[in-house]
Amino acid sequence: MAKASDPLAQYNAKRDFALTPEPAGKAGKPGGNVFIVQKHDATRLHFDLRLEIDGVLKSWAVTKGPSANPDDKRLAVRTEDHPMSYADFEGVIPKGGYGGGTVMLWDRGTWAPIAGKSASDIADGHLHFTLQGERMKGDWLLVRMKPRPGEKRENWLLRKIDDAFAGGTDDLVGREITSVATGRAMAQIASEENGAKPAKANRTPGAKAAPVRRPRTSAKLPAFRPLQLATLADSVPTEHDWIHEIKYDGYRAAVAATGDKVRIYTRNGLDWTDKFAPLVRHFATLDLPPCLIDGEIVAMDKGGNPDFSALQAVLKRGHGAQGAEDELLFFAFDLLEQDGEALTSLGNLERKERLEALLHHAAPPIAVADHVIGAGERLYEAMCSAGQEGIISKRADAKYTGKRSTNWTKVKCTRRQEFIIVGWKPSNAKGRPFASLLLAQHEGDALVYKGNVGTGFTSAVMDELARKFAKLARKTAPLPVDAATARTAQWIRPTLVAEIAFAEFTAGGSVRHASFLGLRDDKPARDVVPEHAKPAPSSASSVKITSRERVVFPEAKITKGDLADYYAAIAPLMIPQAARRPISLVRCPQGRGKACFFQKHDSGSFGEHVHQIAIREKDGGHEDYLYIDDNDGLLACVQMGTIEFHGWASQIDDVEQPDRMVFDLDPDEQLTFADVKKAALDIRGHLADIGLVSFAMLTGGKGIHVIAPLDRGHDWDEHKGFARHFAEALAIAEPGRFVATMSKAKRKGRIFIDWLRNQRGSTAVMPYSARARAHAPVAVPISWEELPSIDSASHWTIDDCKDLLERAADPGLRGWCFARQALPGY
């Protein structure tokens, strides 16, 4: 390394500043704590981690990039110190020069050694530090490896420490592919810095990438919408088409955000932005598009569980109190609006997947609430065993109505309701301002007495309540009560709302074994009414499946009833992907071994649950195409002998605006599935280079689909043209591996990149569709991280339905195939 007297001598000596745009520089003043990570496509793609120490940027080249998985140890080669002016560098170093290639500013923020450590630990070959970046957060570790004989470079290992920011399946460098400074992808930086501005008609992969991200402060904040409320139920729905979440013990809230503008509303639309200022600051750093998010604000007790009393204590201290910054948490569970588009007409699970995609880069104290599909009873038992409040169950395909509905139910581990405080009884104990509180609820137009509560108060809470009671005192009872209660009661105006836990109601309607949990400032007294548990709602399909015993897959003895049961169970996962798209069906009325045929037109023969949309044909006429929008539509198609579902790359509300690009990798018979997997991973990388996030799906046949979801805003000619140029460019670059034409003669030993799926009227098999092949394989979404371990494109069959439902909750599949990104150039 360079001498201490001139820490940048080596840096300056390696570069010709008449040729490179990199900054020459001198050492700055010590004392700063900046860190940056630059993605650098030189001889080999790598990521440069740089930490400000003693006025320079100490640097390591991390060969595979940082990983959020604590089990991953990334090689980090120590390089020369860089000047502080390099912290803003993004551009292209000319070929032939030192480090020639494209440089992106991939992350930035501040760093600090952990308590008791210092930057001088580098000399000892060990640095434990904390990062507060836009992408890298939490504790990290750099450890120098023992050098081999004759080895001149310093090899270190970079590893994430297991903390709240760690993620075992989170592909950090694969997920984040644009600059934190300009929003550009690598290919866009390369083309723009070199002055290349290709015309639209000549677009090729790499010519243009996603548009530069601009500040969103000028966008309008979404307005508050009435929030959906859950109905109290006495048991958990058991059908597969329900999703289940933890019922958090806190304040319901709606967050409206765009860029650094944030508003937080209570469930009744009160603006409590100031009260939750710490969360507002965290949301402002996410640079979100205009959106309205539904969720719960909580605080944790000493055991790490959400606790209403703990939340009350935090709010009482105020957001400026010591530690309050880290005590408020927000669990998001619904997305009502994004980019000016209302999402309330979509199903619960689809909105949840869009929410996952929107908040994929969020970190505590903001998180997306976990959910399970089916298995609600197991979650309920786990929550009750852990002392939690209970669970919320939601019909997967139900719309967001903004009112109380049985499509959302709550099942509580203990009885808890809201009551109005109407008075109090004096205490004989010294220093205790009252013995108990008198409670009531509205029943119709009447205020009805519900007993009293005398436990659950701290001294501070009792003193605070006594002060409130003094201001609300009244001489007469605000409701009818018996003489014994009235004899010693002190009455107040009925405006305070309290959360009360209790064992049961007595025969006379009073609470038994009640305990005070806290006041609720987010709900007016006029809305406090009794909650009566109802039986768990049933969502059994109204579609009757006949001839259930007919064998559809003779090799595995799988019947029509088995197939229908699979689709009924998998519908929560399939509907968000297949609904509201024109579809083509593969129908095999007598089973897959007999005659099968495609069907895309219909005029109503499938029944009321399968819908039609008139679409213009090439000859100028119109034909009725099929589409479905719920579970019953799926089963109605199965009743008519359908095995496979194939869908357009556009939706029925605007069929001329495609919203996903599909590359079907179809291998020659002599190739192995390992060849296809490698091709898919390479195509993913090429798409990332032009600014597109992509997702993988096993087709259930021989190949893999690489899918890029897109914003609408371009037509079919542009969509098809881009896909064709992309596939042809790969075939030209690697003619021994890829071909972009359908000719089987030219496909020998190669993989056909089928871009024809991206033209108007073409379809692709839908996620979770069964295939009309031996043993009933299924088209299954997978994460890029698990792809290397998969042995074939038909890895799962309909017999694996339980596994498919359980694995859908895997973090690597959250938000699968949902992303807001424009077709490069639009």
Automatic annotation (TrEMBL):
CDD domains named among the record's database cross-references: Adenylation_DNA_ligase_LigD_LigC (cd07906), OBF_DNA_ligase_LigD (cd07971), PaeLigD_Pol_like (cd04862)
Domain DNA ligase D polymerase: 559-811
Residue stretches making up the DNA ligase D 3'-phosphoesterase domain: 38-144
Annotated InterPro entries: DNA_ligase_ATP-dep_C (IPR012309), DNA_ligase_ATP-dep_cent (IPR012310), LigD_ligase_dom (IPR014146), LigD_PE_domain (IPR014144), LigD_pol_dom (IPR014145), NA-bd_OB-fold (IPR012340), NHEJ_ligase_prk (IPR014143), NHEJ_LigD (IPR052171)
Catalytic activity: ATP + (deoxyribonucleotide)n-3'-hydroxyl + 5'-phospho-(deoxyribonucleotide)m = (deoxyribonucleotide)n+m + AMP + diphosphate
Region listing for Disordered, in residue ranges: 192-216
Residue span, DNA ligase ATP-dependent C-terminal domain: 431-523
E.C. number: 6.5.1.1
Record flagged with keyword Transport: no
Residue stretches making up the ATP-dependent DNA ligase family profile domain: 239-412
Gene3D superfamilies referenced in this protein's UniProt entry, alphabetically: 3.30.1490.70, DNA ligase/mRNA capping enzyme, DNA primase, PRIM domain, Nucleic acid-binding proteins
Nuclease found in the keyword field: yes
Protein name (Swiss-Prot/TrEMBL): DNA ligase (ATP)
Organism, as annotated: Blastomonas aquatica
